[in-house]
Design a protein that fits this description.
Arc Repressor Mutant, subunit A, mainly alpha
């Protein structure tokens, strides 16, 4: 774990969102599954990216996979 993200914890819902994306599920479909809009999912994803210090959803998925969260 690098110094910038040491101690960062993701909620179960955050991890579930990243796991769905890792499976190739689209943001809009994730939103429908969670009964929220795709825009809400994108906003949550942006928050996850900001907390873990990455720029894209792909990087967030890779970050979670490296830490064996997904």
């Amino acid at each position: 774990m690098d110094a910038l993200t040491e101690g960062v914890e993701l909620s179960d819902a955050d991890v579930a969102l990243l796991a769905e994306l890792a499976k190739g599920v689209t943001v809009d479909r994730v939103g429908r599954r969670l009964d929220v809009s795709g825009r809400t999912v994108r906003r949550r994803l942006r928050g996850i990216c900001d907390r873990i210090g990455v720029d894209t959803a792909i990087e967030a998925v890779a970050w979670a996979a490296r830490r064996q969260l997904i």
